[in-house]
Specification:
- This protein is an alpha+beta fold and 258 residues long.
- Helix content is 34%, strand content 27%.
- The protein contains seven helices and 15 strands.
- The strands form three sheets. The chain has an eight-stranded mixed β-sheet, with helices on both faces. The chain has a five-stranded mixed β-sheet with strand order 12-11-13-15-14, sandwiched between helices. The chain has a two-stranded antiparallel sheet with strand order 1-2.
- The protein is globular, with a radius of gyration of 17 Å.
- It starts with a helix and ends with a helix.
- Bound molecules: D-MYO-inositol-1-phosphate and calcium ion (2 copies).
- One calcium ion binds next to strand 5.
- The site of one calcium ion (CA) has 6 residues, from strand 5.
Length: 258
Amino acid sequence: MNTKIRQVLYQAIYESGEVLLRHFGKVKNVEFKSTEFDIVTEADKESESCIINVIRSNFPIHQILAEEKVNDITTASEFKWIIDPLDGTTNFLHGVPIFSVSIAVEQQGKIIMGGVYHPIARELFFAERGEGAWLNNKPISVSQISEISKSLLVTGFPYERSNIDRLIPYVREVLVRAHGLLRLGSAALDLCYVACGRLEGFWEFFLNPWDTAAGYLIVEEAGGKVTDFAGNPYSPYTRQILATNGRIHNELLSILSQ
Ligand code: IPD
Ligand code: CA
Ligand code: CA
């Protein structure tokens, strides 16, 4: 079963990546979702349809939880596909080449496989539970850095601006203590960059399951640690995430749990 799921995930992620490349730099229609900053474009929708078609033609009764439209989580299947067809829509709209497709597979409530594809860089991050994590088929692992002062970190900001004030104290504290702090604009890629050792840690409030489900497994299988801000194990349905190389986890936790 896992071999077939892996093949379908690869097919869906590569095909949707091509859809995004076709639309990149040419977005025509922008619609608003929860706020004036939370947008969806024809690229998000076409990428999602492409992924759903590939999954449905291979696994007609698997559950699907996808950001833009499809929520089909009532079938009796033990498998659920969790999909962000375009993570980094704001970057995409502005022509910034940092965005990804994220696809995870959950079995009986446990994430068993995850893929994140950055089509511009042609980088596919992939992990399978208990088997490891890879970037373009080469094994990856988290960095060895154990001090925040030597760490390059990344975070993200929510569309709901009434939440911003809560984030500022953490950002301030990290800016004082870390080597650097980035905001790349794709949570799925943030996680993968921690997994492959480019960055030491990532945190964000108010994310959704499709933003983090695949990247979480990629970080864990690369030897990193993923929790909420109280140090509890990660769940895609909890809206806080802290992912690190493990070595700086407690130090960052002490900042985020204040
Ligand atoms: C967003 C990105 C961004 C994060 C936002 C997400 P979207 O996803 O992951 O990095 O900071 O919180 O909503 O809307 O581009 O799929
Ligand atoms: Ca997203
Ligand atoms: Ca998205």
